[in-house]
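name: query_chain
kind: protein
chains: 1
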Amino acid sequence: MRTPLAFLALAALFTAPAAAREVDRQEVAEVFATDVPQERRLYCRDTQVFTLADGREYRACVDWRAQNRTRVVRTYAALDGPETDVDANLDLARACFDIAVASQNDPHRDSFDENAFLAGARAHFELCARSRNLERRGEYSLRIYDNAVWLGGR
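structure:
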């Protein structure tokens, strides 16, 4: 028995996993990396030749500089969504993401609890998505990730 080609193409369309991409992100925390020491460096930016009293020439530094670099770990909340979506629906998803992140961002917190943040943000995202009739809401998800960067010179 032969299966029509159109049926195979349709079956492949519905069984293929939906591709996701990061559609929005916000920084939600920042800490100094405790396991990476601060880097310091002194260097001479400019020299000049001087003639000493005995007639010899001597090159000396005339512009010393100091640089410090510190490793900082930034934590981001990210909204992942379908690879393709209509702009209006994507705008709704981003608006709900903004509300979800804002609902969990306490400027007076002493430490960042990833699990508590995600649980609260996901709950607020879902409430917003339902109230605003976000289409394809099952294809949107929130996650947290870290990115370490150097701040300072070099």
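note: The mean pLDDT is 83.
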